[in-house]
Amino acid sequence: MQALSVRHLLGIKNITPADIQLIFETADNFKEVLNRPIKKVPSLRDITIANVFFENSTRTRLSFELAQKRLSADIVNFSASGSSVKKGETLLDTVNNILAMKVDMIVMRHASAGAPHFLSKHIKANIVNAGDGTHEHPTQALLDAFSIRERLGDVAGKKVAIIGDILHSRVALSNIFALQKLGAEVMVCGPVTLLPRYISALGVKVELNVRKALEWCDVANVLRIQLERQQMKYFPSLREYTLYYGINKKLLDSLDKEIVIMHPGPINRGVELSSDAADSKQAIILNQVENGVAIRMAVLYLLASQV
Amino acid sequence: MQKRLIVSNQLLEIMLERLAQQLIENHHDFSNSVILGLQPRGVFVAERLQQTLQRIIGKPVRTGRLDITFHRDDFRRRESPLTANATQIDFIIENQQVILVDDVLYTGRSVRAALDAMIAYGRPQKVELLVLIDRRYSRDLPIEATYVGQSVNSLSSQRVLVEWRSAETTEDNIWLITKTEEK
Predict the structure, then answer these.
(1) Chain A within 8 Å of B80 (Cβ-Cβ)?
(2) Which of A79, A223, A244, B145 is least buried, going by the fewest C-beta atoms within 10 A?
(3) Any chain A CB within 8 A of the CB of B14?
(4) Which structural domain, as residue segments, surrounds residue A39?
(5) CB A36 to CB B120 under 8 A?
(6) CATH number of the domain that A99 lies in?
(7) Is A14 within 8 Å of A178 (Cβ atoms)?
(8) Does B86 touch chain A (CB under 8 A)?
(9) Domain check: are A21 and A108 in the same one?
């Protein structure tokens, strides 16, 4: 019998390698549940979860909601647009009002880095960070590492290149923490304008040439160009970015090995990843989506035991 | 810790043989019947029964493993979350006669969870329960076994341990342990 060492899942930085292994082992069992004729278990039937999204989300929100429903939890959905937040209510007041309705857990996405950490100091409910600004996105990193483990057997010893917009990516930071905790080597690759200045301090390799990164790695995790987060021009044009950093089948076929292609979604097809590469056998993008539900079920299940 | 042997290695062999014969009496060649061992400890009983049955009838007996963790009613009533085991059912249970197998029947809550978990795989024609040990007068739910190895009277301060042959032990034994003296 094991339990998580934390009450909240705020980031990968806060959890131990043993926590990650426990989440993976639990997710293995939930993957089996998801392949049953009846994909539902009653584990969280007396738990109410609020999905509080202050930022747009499609797959993460859908994945969390599906995970909650598969666990038989009661769900309340809240989105900032059209809510009292628009009338000037503070984050803490908004969440406390939701909690007053006897909610046990909060799944939260917020545009500000550290928002779930702030909340965790002021409320009793368990919090799952579903992405906070450009800081962390722990469940995405967990499902990415879980997908690598599923495809390659283990994460330890593998070389993973994270390619693209590292500067604006919460997925990149959580992935770096998760992969390093599991014993993988990590490289970041992208235009110098999209690489944080002191990123090498995290113990990652830095590469500006995408071909060299692909030749080095076993797994390429290709990130989306986040046009919505960019306040200024970081590269001359999308066309130029694609020319220098876009990954296509021709480039993959020119390598002397077959690497695994990942993408957290949504893909800008034809920008960071071409359709022939995204839809190839090397890509495990849809496996990542499937594993996302199992991983989120595992996280919710393990945290709910502390409610 | 006080350990009292309630079923010896030799008696356990006889018991499994008898239970297998009782199953054959009702299920014949097992063409329409399947065995589901409850994880974790019922699986060992199910495997031993499968071996015995296959030896007697000379045909394969479909046997699976059913994990009940996510269907238990004591989640969040424990100090730490329950660790799940693998469910492995490589056959259809729809319209089959299912024999649920566990080592010990105590409160009946595990069996209730097993019935719940099993329904996710289809609607069996009939469900029966086989246990090695029935701890009488201990039920929290109205659940009784169809096939019983041995019934024992025990106190709530005691537990039944079914010990299978392994690296640590050379024999199969069933013990009644008085927990009050455990460290």
Answers:
(1) yes
(2) A244
(3) no
(4) 8-137+289-305
(5) yes
(6) 3.40.50.1370
(7) no
(8) yes
(9) yes
